[in-house]
Write a structure and sequence with these properties.
The structure is a homodimer.
Chain A (H helix, E strand, L loop, with lengths): L8 H15 L6 H8 L3 H7 L3 H25 L6 H19 L6 H7 L7 H24 L4 H23 L4 H16 L3
Helix pairs in contact in A: 1-2, 1-4, 4-5, 4-7, 5-7, 5-8, 5-9, 7-8, 8-9
Chain A binds a DNA duplex through helix 3.
DNA sequence: AGAGTTAGGAACTGATCGGTACAAAACACA
DNA sequence: TGTGTTTTGTACCGATCAGTTCCTAACTCT
């Protein structure tokens, strides 16, 4: 009953998310956004309400795709014990840094630091994602051994901070050796959880 | 022989640094910068060449003041053993988070994530600061015990990533309890250095 | 084929961006 | 009290910012 879209909103969203991921909210100009998404202004404002909206939608998308994927990996017992799964996650990150330099980092981590997120809806979304990650570490830890809840919670948070720290260092052009060293320390944290 | 300055370039620089620290390079508009520094455009461009220059100068200032202060604290044997000094640093950070929420975080950490720094002079300055911190941790560790260099290096890097991770979480509005838990994990990392 | 509906695209909005030009103001020196 | 020098403030610059308007193109349904 009307003219159909000439672009796939899903892939356009993906392109937008990647740009925000790379350069942050403020630094992603509308012009760059349109170029990345390969659509024009009319289509943009018709399909996605405005810049703020698509940023929030990008956060949701990251949560749905990437964070969920990470949580799933950490929960899947087919990947080994909880300790192995956690180390596997860190190994993947280190691999990304080694292979392509990984200047993208982690969208969640980048957005946490980005002041554009503060105070509003974005911050709440980010905190929710942080808690999802924390809980995924927590569960992986308690899968392996009978741990006091408080102890497991502590270790999960320690791993979480090591994770974000590694991501920060990776984004800044950290050497691969440095990543490997960071992971050795996570191994040691996991020793406590035995 | 000429009209004297009506402002103190040093305190103006401090104000500029604080703004960049808070909101990053891109998000700090010239208008906000001028308002914070309490000078007008004419004075700004005469005293500090342009926005990019004062940003780089802010990084240098942060290195001279804050990073040097941190390194000095970590090196000063009057503050206790190396382990105690390291834990003292983390304690200070946790305190800042508890007291005022610390939404400022660490300029170095924030700037590492800020894409505006990538590739140029800024990135080199940031990496240099990271290495200063890493070396300070390294020395504090080797002050306490005879450690193999490679082992101490590893642990220093692990502590470094935990440090940045804590800073990221703090900036995002992390609860004080979470900070305390992170520090418990650093304690455990230091156990290995005995 | 014609009517109805929505997407696409270009022209345009006022506001703000970082930066410059220049004249008035304020000082040191003679 | 001039005179030379530098700071200061303002008006202005073109470019870009996010967002709107509106006309045309492309489709579906009758």
């Amino acid at each position: 009953m009307a003219r159909p879209r000439e672009f796939d909103p899903d892939v356009a969203m993906d392109k937008a998310m990647t740009l925000f991921w790379d350069v942050g909210y403020e630094e992603a100009s509308l012009a760059e956004l349109l170029q990345a998404m390969e659509i024009t202004k009319g289509s943009f404002y018709k399909a996605f309400h405005d810049k703020q909206s698509i940023y929030l939608a990008s956060l949701d998308r990251y949560n749905d795709k990437v964070v969920s994927g990470t949580v799933a990996f950490l929960s899947d017992k087919a990947n080994g014990t909880g300790r192995i799964r956690i180390l596997g996650l860190f190994g993947k990150v280190a691999e990304a840094i080694e292979e392509d330099g990984d200047r993208l980092g982690c969208f969640l981590c980048n957005a946490l630091v980005d002041k554009a997120a503060e105070g509003g809806e974005a911050e709440a979304k980010l905190q929710a994602m942080v808690h999802r990650l924390e809980n995924a570490f927590f569960k992986a830890l308690t899968d392996d051994a009978e741990l006091e809840e408080a102890v497991a919670r502590e270790i999960a948070r320690g791993i979480l901070s090591a994770y974000f720290g590694l991501r920060v260092l990776g984004r800044a052009g950290l050497s691969a050796q440095m990543a490997a060293d960071c992971i050795r320390q996570v191994e040691w944290l996991l020793e406590k959880a035995k």
